[in-house]
Amino acid sequence: MGEESAAFADAGPADLPPGTCALRQVAGRPVLVARAGDGRLFALEGRCSHALLSLEGARLRGSAVMCPHHGARFDLATGRALGPPASAPITTFAIREEAGRFEVRLP
Questions:
Q1: For residue 2, what pLDDT is reported?
Q2: What is the mean pLDDT of residues 14-39?
Q3: E strands, the chain, where?
Q4: Which of 57, 58, 88, 98 is such that its CA lies 20 to 30 A from the CA of 16?
Q5: What is the DSSP code string of 58-80?
Q6: How many CA atoms lie within 13 A of 26 on its CB side?
Q7: Which of 6, 10, 13 has the alpha carbon at shortest distance from 26?
Q8: Cα–Cα distances in angstroms (integers) from residue 99 to residues 36, 94, 96, 103, in the given order
């Protein structure tokens, strides 16, 4: 396998039903893995940019993820903050599903 494969890290089993997300540890970093209602996969930084709190327990709302602490929302595809209290984006990562597992490309 080439260099591209080496850039991806295991993000656990691909067991998310559509419309759900889960916080995973990927190479020691918290990453929110999401499967949108239409089945598309997304991976985002696992901390809210507003108060740097964990996105554990976040919920999907259409094409956005909502922080469980103060209700900040972020675009799943771009990480852009969609409204207060967050104003800064969160990082997004490439994600793929391989052999029943998620793999995320970290910087």
A1: 40
A2: 97
A3: 8-13, 20-26, 29-35, 41-45, 59-61, 64-66, 73-75, 81-83, 92-98, 101-105
A4: 88
A5: -EEETTEEE-TTT--EEETTT--
A6: 28
A7: 10
A8: 20, 17, 10, 10
Written as six digits, the tokens of 56 are: 């554990």
Q: Tell me how long the chain is.
A: 107
Question: Could you tell me which CATH class the domain 37-86 is placed in?
Answer: mainly beta
Q: Identity (one letter) of the amino acid at 15?
A: D
Band (13; pLDDT cuts 50, 70, 90): very high
Token digits for 9?
């890290």
Looking at the predicted structure, is the pLDDT value of residue 45 above 90? yes
